[in-house]
Amino acid sequence: MLDLRSDTVTKPDDAMREASRDAEVGDDVYGEDPTVNRLEDEAADLVGMEDALYVPSGTMGNQVAVRTHTERGQEVLTERESHVVKWELGGMAQLSTLQVRTLDGGERGVPTPEQVREGHVEEDLHRPGTGLLTLENTHNSKGGVAIAPERIDAAAEAAHDLGIPVHLDGARVCNAAVAHDVPVERMTERVDSVMFCLSKGLGAPVGSILAGSEEFVARARRNRKLFGGGMRQAGIIAGPGRLALDNVERLADDHENARVLAEELAGVEGLSVQDPETNIVLVNTEGTGREADEFLDACAEAGVQGTQFDTHVARFCTHWDVNREDVEQAAEYASEAVERLD
Ligand SMILES: *Cc1c(COP(=O)(O)O)cnc(C)c1O
């Protein structure tokens, strides 16, 4: 079975398993795990921030960031299809007593400076005040689109002019950087904090990074503890995480494989395919007269798995456990699946 449900499904290779076994460890809640400390330093350098915090998941990284930037009862400005509002169980409301105001970021999922200014709410006797703007790059729900750094800068500057901090959900920010052929730190230049996942295209078994200023990370560390994310001998998982940081350039292979997959799928009668910019391929099944879940069931029977994204949209994700032949094979399976639907 070819598993293209997500880039999170990769299994650690031998080097990562060795890094786990051989990791020098200590109690990270006391700040004494040398492997975690090194990972945090290296990860902060990668995104050009003063400091970083190792967290168990991207969701925790985002939710800790949101909590750290805001005060109870404020509003958070976020894009309406963004992960932080769509796929995190309403965490901003549940964990941080915040209200969300969504902006429609259009096809690329990034609000304009004008939208940020219009969405901003000044605190007064009646209104809660805006406490944070969140952005997402690459934008998952929009099909892994790689937003240009200038557009992130522009939205961030608009927020800063209003005195609002900016958090970037950069679960796949390294994919965005590779797609734009710039260093990762260029993608995060104007934001105040960034979360990125080690456990997606970079291939680590577990973990994400939340980076920002020293002062921000010190407060985030307390909130990580509050949310139950204080870990002990975490070097065991941070060891492979350090190796994951070396895999940024390798993401170009996933992007190339996604392009090949998209081209092949576009040749299948009834499927329409969005041009991939990174490692995510969105396939619309409307032309087959069937919904995405029926198409995906047939795909799984044929030999390839994807996920349903919308009524008529399926997502396939390339990653380091699939190569060029695998994606060509995947497209053949999808073609067989469409035939079976008739
Ligand atoms: C995967 C993802 C997350 C959450 O990461 P988990 O480790 O699965 O909690 C957050 N934001 C985006 C855009 C993602 O794709």
Automatic annotation (TrEMBL):
Region (Disordered) location: 1-31, 104-123
GO cellular component term of the entry, any: cytosol
NCBIfam families according to UniProt: GntG_guanitoxin (NF041359)
Lyase listed as a keyword: yes
A GO term, aspect molecular function: L-allo-threonine aldolase activity
Top-level division of the source organism's lineage: Archaea
Modified residues (N6-(pyridoxal phosphate)lysine): 200
Pfam family, one: Beta_elim_lyase
Protein name per Swiss-Prot or TrEMBL: Low specificity L-threonine aldolase
UniProt record similarity statement: Belongs to the threonine aldolase family.
InterPro entries named in the record: ArAA_b-elim_lyase/Thr_aldolase, Low_specificity_L-TA-like, PyrdxlP-dep_Trfase, PyrdxlP-dep_Trfase_major, PyrdxlP-dep_Trfase_small
Alphabetically ordered keywords of this record: Lyase, Pyridoxal phosphate
Essential cofactor(s): pyridoxal 5'-phosphate
PANTHER family: L-THREONINE ALDOLASE (PTHR48097:SF9), L-THREONINE ALDOLASE-RELATED (PTHR48097)
Aromatic amino acid beta-eliminating lyase/threonine aldolase domain segment(s): 3-285
Basic and acidic residues biased stretches: 1-24
Biological-process GO terms, alphabetical: glycine biosynthetic process; L-threonine catabolic process
